Amino acid sequence: MAATATIAGVVATSSVALAAAPAAPSPKPAPASQAMTTLPTAPVEDVIVTYKSKAAEAGSNAAARSDAAAKAKETGESLSFERRLASGAALVDLGGETSKKDVTDVMAAFRADPSVASVEPDIRAYAMAVTPNDTDYAKQWDLFEATGGMNVPGAWDKGTGTGVTVAVIDTGYAAHTDLAANIVPGYDFISSSTDARDGNGRDSDAKDEGDWNATAGECGTGSTAGNSSWHGTHVAGTIGATASNAKGIAGIAYSAKIQPVRVLGKCGGSSSDIADAITWASGGTVPGATANANPAKVINLSLGGASSTCPSVYQTAINGAVSRGTTVVVAAGNSNANASGFTPANCAGVINVASTSREGNRSFYSNFGSIIDVSAPGGETRRATDTPGTITTPENGILSTLNSGTTTQSVENYKPYQGTSMAAPHIAGLAALLKSAKSTLTPAEIESAIKSNARPLPGTCTGGCGSGIADATKTVNAVTGTPTTPGGTTFSNATNVTISDNATVTSSITVTGRTGNAPAALKVAVDIKHTWRGDLVVDLIAPDGTMRNLKGSSSSDSADNVLATYTVDASSEIANGTWKLQVRDVASGDTGYIDTWSLTL
Predict the structure, then answer these.
(1) For residue 97, what pLDDT is reported?
(2) Can you tell me the distance from the alpha carbon of 41 to that of 268, in angstroms, rounded to the nearest whole number?
(3) Which of 167, 266, 340, 553 could form a disulfide with 281 if both were Cys (CB 3.0 to 4.6 A apart)?
(4) What 3-state class would DSSP assign to 306?
(5) Mapping DSSP to helix (H, G, I), strand (E, B) and coil, where does residue 56 land?
(6) Kind of pairing, strands 504-511 and 547-551?
(7) Nearest to 580 by CA among 490, 487, 511
(8) Which range, of 24-33, 55-64, 84-93, averages the lowest pLDDT?
């Protein structure tokens, strides 16, 4: 669980005590904590309780209801069982606005129960776009410009998203003629009729009813008044706006189907609703919801809240989605802070996306860190030094489909936004292109291909921007076996392999379909997540057992992670066969894992 400082909503800034340095002979200072920008602190209204599988409450709503009543008597709070989540967990209503102390007491009571596996707050998540802008039309530099663009047009001869459904789990859908042909039925998972603004709870109508706030503070301390964002419609346009229709914009996967799944309404959305939406969108079963007739193979989550850990309700839903073959893409967040403090960006099994500017720099607002997988254009409608709230460079934002209504829907239009919310759908669109071009690809293979074929940022990135800016054409060519350069087919492995202290581990790639020997300039791209990377020795083992060293150990190299591409003369080796990446940890005190690696030959 996250620290109790994070319980009252999506969280207050906190600090982490520094751990003592290990004893000689190789003392290693523990990394300092990363400051988090404060988001609105909405009160917690529910907790999510997961019972152990053999407990009666795990399968019986009546038993869960009785347990909630017992805990209410024990704590003096007004608790009631509300409903069963798709994960099997119980959602327990706290009976209205509750203080942090009261929430802590309730959670402590559940934790003390030996039949309870875990309990966590039902935290709020918010759209990850920066303030909407009112500006002139801007060209889609993000698709094709050489400096900051994603090299999309060259991928369209291999796939345009045909046969792939992308779920946009967001604010819902505002009707737009540049999207209508690609929209398939979605669902409204907002369980609170007040937040949903549609007069009821969950239903099959994903219409965006608006997420405006009339007054500052109504959504928690630090929240501001504002108009409706139509955020989900903007995200959807980047992925799947109709192309070649003589109007508007072209989506990255313009032949894909877009499934709007509504989870964000007034004051954001709850983790319980979002988790159920992930399950439903990927084809899982959610109690009370009709089955999804068009399960999505890609999910876009341009939303998030502050939390030092990934809530189990998110992780369970994401694990289920991935197991059903659905790629989950998440925005890193817009707080110019370490992405590890934001969720679901810090969950396992997702593609975590940072934002870059038109010049190819990390966008000034974008979160960063070692958990970032890849970057994509998110734009900057103002410079970092410009007055917040001003619009000084609208042409450098991400143009997409929108609505002109300030509260409820009005006339459709187009406007540029900036944010990691805009970067994530670029990767979701690319994932749809990959799945369209090669239907057998798994989520791990899609992630690996995107990361392995990204290019270094042409600008600057402080803090970590993953493997670079995604390159759509290069990635699609790689998975379809079309070399971008002679001998340029990429083989990859994105299955995580844990690296324990003083251990040796390997990860394998089987190369097939090649003739003759490997090239004299074999490219080996490595992404290893590990604190104090000087502990690691990295070797490439050829199919015949020949070992070539890629990286040695160093007691003075205290930086995190190995993110590099090595060039190896492998011309004496047969190309086909099983290649291995071997990683040895030669010191104690730091651990990590092989995230992904690839061979281009």
Answers:
(1) 67
(2) 11
(3) 167
(4) strand
(5) helix
(6) unpaired
(7) 511
(8) 24-33
